[in-house]
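<goal> How does this chain fold?
<sample>
Here is the protein in question

***
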Amino acid sequence: MAETVVLRVGMSCQGCVGAVKRVLGKMEGVDSFDVDIKEQKVTVKGNVTPDAVLQTVSKTGKKTSFWEAGPAASESATPASS
């Protein structure tokens, strides 16, 4: 079953991007992936589980979390006081 997993990954240089691409390229079940250093976003498509993708990318030593769990999501979810 095809799954799309979106992660927030702390990448500061092309070396970081290369490390993420290297581990995803070796991961079983990955059909395709996109690494966006500007957005700090990694999108993975394939027969994978979100937890497996998170664990694999975490092996690079980069700060990794699910995209929805990032600081931007929690800030926008804060209710405005009336």
In short: DSSP finds three helices and four strands in the chain. The mean pLDDT is 86. The longest helix spans residues 14-26. The two ends are 45 Å apart (CA to CA).
